[in-house]
Amino acid sequence: MRHLIHINDLDNKEIEKILDTAKQYKQGIIHKSLENKKIITAFFENSTRTLSSFEIAGKNLGASIIRLDVAKSSTSKGETLRDTAANLNAMQPNAIIIRHSDAGSGYFLIPKVSCPIINGGDGAHSHPTQALLDLMTLLEHFGTLANKTIGIIGDIKNSRVANSNIALLPRFGAKLLLIAPPHFMPPINLPKTHNLREAIKQCDAIISLRTQTERHSRQVYGSLQDYASDFCITSDLLQQHQTIILHPGPVHRNIDISDSVLEDARCKVLQQVENGVFVRMAVLDFLINARS
Ligand code: NCD
């Protein structure tokens, strides 16, 4: 039984296979390979893109989706997450997709279930399908990541998207540059800067991240507006550079990325959302039909 909690649960060959399948789906070559399969989505944290993307992905392949209404679930009555998982598992789903504020929550559900667990984001730890769709979007644009410099800007320290991309992109040849003020910089050994204007000149792509205010125990910066004056990607900074801009959403408009850059052809945010559905279809097919 395979699960996807961390991006390193997949080796490079498996990732290439998943991206090939996603590409075929994008070209319209779709078999209903999940007909008669049941997928439960259990999102204990808010979500716009990831939840709907997984649900559309499952439906596109013919699966039935059962969404746990967490506000009305027994977890809110004191049931442990493990017991909730064991009870959901007794209804014999073919996969459970979970989003939870506790880092690593997927790992402790694994012993309680007999189907794949897929992590839709766990605290600040990991968001593997977001990194896969980012990789797909980057590869669509560049063909290869060899010798490409990818900047990651924003609240890197508290971002599961950053963690998953830091684990994944170098495996496909990318060089990383972390761009953040000191309080958002993680203590890891990668090239770092706080000078966005200079960073844009070096980067082939920049992944912008939202300030994860819900994960700050206290406000560590003056205001989002102060942060934006140094770290918002604007047309003035982007100029004529070929750098493309990604963001997992939700975007803090004019804090992370300016209105004009959001409208710019170099901004790939909606292409990421589009690719997310195809990547998640491929992940569901890979794990549920155990295509290894
Ligand atoms: C991110 C998340 O929830 O981890 N969004 C997403 O899944 N597309 C990023 C965020 O919340 O900032």
TrEMBL record:
PROSITE patterns linked: CARBAMOYLTRANSFERASE
Give the reactions, separated by semicolons, that this protein catalyses. Answer: carbamoyl phosphate + L-aspartate = N-carbamoyl-L-aspartate + phosphate + H(+)
Q: What is an annotated GO biological process for this record, any one?
A: 'de novo' UMP biosynthetic process
Q: GO molecular function terms here?
A: amino acid binding; aspartate carbamoyltransferase activity
Which pathway does the database say it acts in? Pyrimidine metabolism; UMP biosynthesis via de novo pathway; (S)-dihydroorotate from bicarbonate: step 2/3
Q: Which GO terms describe its cellular component?
A: cytosol
Which top EC class applies here? transferase
Q: What is its EC number?
A: 2.1.3.2
Q: Which UniProt keywords apply?
A: Pyrimidine biosynthesis, Transferase
Q: Write out the residues that bind L-aspartate.
A: 77, 160, 210
Which Gene3D superfamilies does the entry link to? Answer: Aspartate/ornithine carbamoyltransferase
What is said about its interaction partners and assembly? Answer: Heterododecamer (2C3:3R2) of six catalytic PyrB chains organized as two trimers (C3), and six regulatory PyrI chains organized as three dimers (R2).
Q: Which family does it belong to?
A: Belongs to the aspartate/ornithine carbamoyltransferase superfamily. ATCase family.
What is this protein identified as? Aspartate carbamoyltransferase
Identify the species of origin.
Helicobacter enhydrae
Gene designation per UniProt:
pyrB
